[in-house]
Amino acid sequence: AQHVPDKKVDSVCPYCGVGCQLTYNVKDNKILYVEGRDGPANHGRLCVKGRYGFDYAHHPHRLTKPLIRRAGVPKTGDFVMDPDRVMDVFREATWEEALELAGGKLKAIRDTHGRKALAGFGSAKGSNEEAYLFQKLVRTGFGTNNVDHCTRLCHASSVVALLEGIGSGAVSNPVMDVTKADVVIIIGANPTVNHPVAATWMKNAARAGTKLVILDPRRSELARFAHRYLQFKPDTDVALLNAMMHVIVSEGLVDQAFIANRTSGYEELRKNVEGYSPEAMAPICGIDADTIREVARLYATSKASMILWGMGVSQHVHGTDNARCLIALALMTGQIGREGTGLHPLRGQNNVQGASDAGLIPMMYPDYQHVSSPEARARFEQAWKLAPGTLDEKPGLTVVEVMDAIHHGDIRGMYVMGENPAMSDPDANHARDALAALDHLVVQDIFLTETAYLADVILPASAFAEKTGTFTNTDRLVQLGRQALNPPGDARQDLWIIQEIAKRLDLRWDYGHVSEVFDEMRRTMPSIAGITWERMERDDAVTYPCPNEGDPGQSVVFVDDFPRPTGRARFVPADVIPAAERPDTEYPLVLITGRQLEHWHTGSMTRRAAVLDALEPDPVALVHPLDLDAMGGRPGDLVTIESRRGKVSLYARADESSPRGAVFVPFCYYEAAINRLTNAALDPFAKIPEFKYCAIRVTLG
Ligand code: SF4
């Protein structure tokens, strides 16, 4: 009976924002297999990551003891995976010694160099409670708002545009609403790879008659189900979207009543799109004027049209402008506030929505209460039992800004929980040099990540299945993840570790069960005030906003008004801005980075999951076959890709989905860390870097 589980534990998938519910089948503290549950987002389905990506928790590379860097060992960015050599760099320590050093030195930096000399990165891999407690630690223990996480690299631009335009950074309608829509635009997203179970609902909708319109420079598998697929040129989103709006305005397809009753700023938007006729934009975006007109009419005139988007929209220096255009499209046609309509930025990580909601961002307290608001500060000072005037009124630094501040000597100490900026940050050599230059780096993780390799102290944490907490999916659905395993060796729960660090910074916290943190969150976050812990345990999933205990949760929002001071949504016009770095004779191709189906973000988990690693073991670059021919190469050849910032070598894969002149590379391979090449140029509004466009050259060998 060695393969018969001795317990079954209901939880959620640790990977993407779809938030599939699953059951862990466990025997002797080992997961044997995983099954899909009938959750609201997945109805029993799981993709390959959810089904097979669990055994990383049992991998021999798991950190099981606190580690302290050996004296005199230099910090270099050249990561060594060999666990045998780890002990040349680090030595084992007791928890007491590691915590005293980790927390004590953070405190010493604060007291000597001031509170702004510290920063913290939390993680969208962690629970809502971990995110909440981590940002509370940075704000009240470090005394700064220098706290951020991977949302900065993901949908920060979408959130800025949504907060500005409609007053809420979350989605207006759940993914499943694609089955209620007549027309669905999917732009800059590859759901089959990145949100696989959500993609199945999109395909079902297409089979049932919903017209899918795919707008993307890369042809995704979903394009096979599309009514229209528009392969526009990379970096020309605003040209295409403004041209669509030009058609809607000039042909009188706007919803006049909706504009008059529920919006402001339309006149400015209307004037702006006058200059963007489809004929003028066709050569820029590479889509003929008639097709632009057809798609614009289709979206504007259907009974219910919905827009979903991904990183292809957000990760540009004009990411906020791209999202502003999508919002304006929905507003001018009244395609929002009803079932089957609205705006849905597909969230990447399983808790990137929840971590942002919980305040793990430098400019907002939990529930998007701005740190510069005296009322918000007073509310949190009271809730956190602080003297008036304690909290910093200045927004903190964002992810990429923190790296620059380290190079300038302004930040000297960091606490990183579950993030891997040495792999995920743009211009990763610059980021690694920054991490190495810190006086003190504390990393809390389950593996010796590329970031942990640069740490002074490493705190061994708990894997997803080893803790209980809530996680918020892309649909604003708060779900309960339950502990199925005990952490290995001396690894500890993240909530415990955060509290131990807090103690060393003179904070007197005494949270016992995770529900005590959740209860405090409810008291400070009106959006989840009606979700009790008992309700989570009973129902497993509740959608917010849920302001009172009797409220069933609201899956479609903005039905009557928008959560802005005027109650009206706001049009914000956008103009075409080119990418920060264009191809030239020296670097003639474009690099686009992203994910692949089998691997997750920086690969620390999925590359240690046996099935997933077997499916995609080696770093690959996806090159159009004609470009590969032109360079005299064949599929499987080793190629070197170079930008002005670095170079990597990996295997070429012929891929017709990539447009000619563009190369796509996943960012999960430490041995070919593609973010060494990407550009750290930032969108000025959201400070999101331009992962989706920089100039490269490719050579054989
Ligand atoms: Fe997990 Fe996303 Fe796959 Fe669902 S679709 S099983 S949440 S990775």
TrEMBL record:
Keyword hit for Coiled coil: no
Name of protein: Formate dehydrogenase subunit alpha
Parent-protein start and end of this portion: 221 to 921 of 945
GO cellular component: membrane; oxidoreductase complex
Cofactor field: [2Fe-2S] cluster; [4Fe-4S] cluster; Mo-bis(molybdopterin guanine dinucleotide)
Superkingdom assignment: Bacteria
Biological process annotations from GO: ATP synthesis coupled electron transport; formate metabolic process
GO MF, one example: NADH dehydrogenase (ubiquinone) activity
Higher taxonomy: Bacteria, Pseudomonadati, Pseudomonadota, Betaproteobacteria, Burkholderiales
Entry keyword set: 4Fe-4S, Iron, Iron-sulfur, Metal-binding, Molybdenum, Oxidoreductase, Repeat
Recorded family membership: In the C-terminal section; belongs to the prokaryotic molybdopterin-containing oxidoreductase family.
Ranges of residues in domain 4Fe-4S Mo/W bis-MGD-type: 6-61
Organism: Ramlibacter pinisoli
Keyword Oxidoreductase (UniProt): yes
